[in-house]
Amino acid sequence: MKNSLLFLSFCFIMLQAKSQVMDPEMQLQKLGIVLGEVKAPAANYVKAVQTGNLLFLSGHIPDEVVGKKTRGKVGSALTVDEGKEAARLTGIALLTTLKAYVGDLNKVKRIVKVFGMVNADANFTQHPAVINGCSDLLVAVFGEKGKHARSAVGMGSLPFDASIEIEMIVEL
């Protein structure tokens, strides 16, 4: 009898844990995010390369969106909050490529690493706050699986005068 109760308790705990696992596809819907089409690479590279169970996503920049600042230097052309929104838009671009590659975001085991580059004025020092726009999005979509290692650095310039460029490594 005691073993049966222990087994039932274990099953109950496992069911609770399973129900708490986030479905990233549903999270995108809840957040009102619709992933569009993957844009072609701007040069001689591919958007994603898989080796083993790791998927390396090339650097992505934010799409230009009416009413949103995504071009220019953070610290002069963009405020920290505008840079953070540009990083969020870049995160959406990364998720678009990721979904196109894997088909279903539930195949993602973990977001491993984010490398965020900020097109910043020479005296700008709030790079981590800006890249939080992408990091916060990944945690909102994937929950604990979205927490990742990260670098946030400043650059003198970025392609097409983008304010942000972000690379990502994903475990499948």
Question: How would you characterize this protein structure?
Answer:
The protein is α+β, with helices and mostly antiparallel strands and 172 residues long. The chain has one domain: RutC-like (60s Ribosomal Protein L30, Chain: A). The protein is built from four helices and five strands; from the N terminus they run ααββαβαββ. Helix 4 (127-142) links the parallel strand 3 and strand 4 (149-155). The relative contact order is 0.21. Mean pLDDT is 91; it is low at 15-19.
Question: How are the SSEs placed, and which strands pair?
Answer:
Layout: H1 2-19, H2 24-30, E1 48-51, E2 54-60, H3 80-102, E3 110-119, H4 127-142, E4 149-155, E5 164-171
Parallel strand pairs: 3-4
Antiparallel strand pairs: 1-2, 2-5, 3-5
Labels describing this entry:
172 residues; alpha+beta; 60s Ribosomal Protein L30, Chain: A; 4 helices
Counted by DSSP, the helix tally is 4
Structural class: alpha+beta
Q: What's the end-to-end separation, in Å?
A: 41 Å
Largest sheet: 5 strands, mixed
Relative strand content? 15-25%
H/E series, N to C?
HHEEHEHEE
The shape, in one word, is globular
| CATH class descriptor | Alpha Beta
Our Rg estimate from Cα atoms comes to 19 Å
The CATH topology annotation reads as 60s Ribosomal Protein L30, Chain: A
CATH architecture: 2-Layer Sandwich
CATH homologous superfamily (4th level) name: RutC-like
What is the number of beta strands? 5
Uncertain regions spanning at least 5 consecutive residues: 15-19
Query: Mean pLDDT score, rounded?
Result: 91
